[in-house]
Amino acid sequence: MDVLIIGGGASGIVCAIRLKQNNPAIGVTVLEHLDEACKKIHATGNGRCNITNKNADGFETTASFFQSLGLLLRESGEGRMYPYSNQAASVVGVLLEACEKYGVTLVTDCHIKKAEKLDGQFNVFTDKGVFTADNLVLATGGMAQSALGSDGSGYALAKAFGHSVTELSPALVQLKSSSKNCRVLKGVRAKCCVKIETNGDIVGEDYGELLFTEYGISGIVTMNLSEKISDRRLKSGEDRCHAIIDFVPEISEEALVSHFETFGNFDGILPHKLCAVLQRQTDGDGVKTAQYIKHWKLIITGTKGYDYAQITKGGVPLGELKEGGESALCDGLYIIGELTDRQFHCGGFNLDAAFNSGIAAADRIVRTK
Fold this sequence. Notes:
By secondary structure, the protein is an alpha+beta fold. It contains 12 helices and 19 strands.
């Protein structure tokens, strides 16, 4: 049996290795359009690679898989797991070494022209010839950070086999605001509660660190909520969106007013620069400033886009897939990783899901051969 995998990223490479671990006799070929595989992994976790999270559903599977390759993990707060070396290069290294050890054929600089299924065989036409296999795995990634390989080409391949694709948008990405206060507050950080309000309705809420930037807001809380923003709808005027910030969710508005009456300012609670901005907006009115601290609105004009996004929201609907990412529409076809409509918050959850999808697909292929 031969298996073709399009995409040499997290899900594709792990799927290839797991296939060979399960059955060394399987012929496995990975087609990657960049000049090297796993390029995106190098950039994850600020170069450290947040492989998984202890709270992720697939944590044990991911940890066990990497342990089988000799890679040890260490925890770094909030369940985030990194390679013991704290270097993404270690993760890429063990994956590529495993490909060589197990006999995975890796074809780089390989550009796909089209793919089809004919007489029970998959044919993939590329600029390096035609590749044929019994099973085809689409692991191309989404549209986030195209320079690292995710250029969105996998969606057309999925559609060619009858699949649909939900509306796509950048996710785990910074948000832009037209407010000049963001530029004034550039560099200020705050642990706060943020709500996303769209057309008057609260569509999302999260707590975490917020970072003000020249273009708007960043930080983990912003990234986690960015999936609630539709650039298309904001641009067309269908949506009007605000971020509503509670800078001190642990402190009531009444307690803030009492604090102001005692000390005359909020410098003992919030960063001085933030206090100055808020009090300037309220002309120094303590009661009104307390209201702003608990309910400060920022206009959101869009996201920073796919080039800055960690993942893509949307993809092939899970309802069109069976166990292990196997297509419900085309026997022998598997769609895994970010190409599917399955996203998670920051903290290693998305990379864990990518690794697990590759493992699940490999296990399913071997069971159903």
